[in-house]
Amino acid sequence: MLTIDHIDVYYGAIQALRGVSLNVNQGEIVAIIGSNGAGKSTLLRTISGLLKPRTGTIQFQDKTISGVPADQIVKLGISHSPEGRRIFTNMTVSENLLLGAYIRKDAEIEKDLEKVLLRFPRLRERIKQSSGTLSGGEQQMLAIGRALMSRPSLLLLDEPSLGLAPNLVTEIFSIVNDVNKDGTTVLIVEQNAHRALEVAHRAYVIETGSIVIEGSGKELLEDSRVKEAYLGG
Ligand SMILES: Nc1ncnc2c1ncn2[C@@H]1O[C@H](COP(=O)(O)OP(=O)(O)OP(=O)(O)O)[C@@H](O)[C@H]1O
Ligand SMILES: [Mg+2]
Q1: How confident is the model at residue 16 (pLDDT cuts 50, 70, 90)?
Q2: pLDDT band at 104 (very low <50, low <70, confident <90, very high)
Q3: Residue 166 to residue 172: CA distance in whole angstroms
């Protein structure tokens, strides 16, 4: 579904990704793990068209998308729930959710809103509330819900569990699993390596801009290098 081939990405003179190649098959949950500054968010921003690779290519369902503007990439079926959630705190929950559907003109937006609210009952209870008053976990749910409102075939999630209490982390990962089971392919970036590897079919480890290890979620959970560096020994 997604094939990334040897991309180099820079911020001005700073190289953030070095020859990164990876692929995501339809129906998978693929995790990217790595420490602070490794390049995880840069990778997602490049896939969603916010950054452009200097070399290398990105293919999505047989189309080359590297260099395609971000709004076009959403139309092709890729939706990005960014790091730090980036919801509009002065707007209501329902306004934020409907913004996620801004590219759509079809008649099923209301139906999809209902689906999102079934998945996130807490959002339904707070539908008219200003989003800035939501808890951190609820804001994360809103960010994921908003990303789902564009009906993506590939959902990019950047650190959905960051800063959440353990029970909410469990809830978020269970939602990610449900969304995937309902047919959405997921590429998830996480510092919570343990949870991410448990839910992922396959995963990649990124260090200083390069992919250094790849394998099934299970293989990586048992890999001694991964255990030592990311799973607390
Ligand atoms: N806007 C920017 N301008 C310059 N350098 C940047 C910018 N954004 C990121 N970088 C640099 O690119 C590298 C990769 O950053 P990135 O945000 O992709 O890391 P990350 O793996 O997502 O880290 P974290 O886990 O802390 O979110 C870092 O060295 C960072 O300092
Ligand atoms: Mg990041």
Answers
A1: very high
A2: confident
A3: 10
Q: Where are the domains of the chain?
A: 2-230
State the residue for tokens 């959970």.
221
How far does the centroid of ligand 1 lie from the alpha carbon of residue 73, in Å? Answer: 22
DSSP, collapsed to helix, strand or coil, labels residue 175 as: helix
CATH 3.40.50.300 fits 2-230, yes or no: yes
By three-state DSSP, how is residue 4 classified? strand
For ligand 1, whether the C-beta of 90 sits within 6 Å is no
> How far apart (Å, rounded) are the C-alpha atoms in residues 178 and 172?
10
pLDDT of residue 24: 98
For 90, half-sphere exposure in the C-beta direction (CA atoms, 13 angstrom radius) is 0
pLDDT digits (tens, 9 = 90+) for 62-81: 999 999 999 999 999 999 99
DSSP 188-209: EEES-HHHHHHH-SEEEEEETT
Q: With a 6 A CB cut-off, is 39 part of the ligand 1 pocket?
A: yes
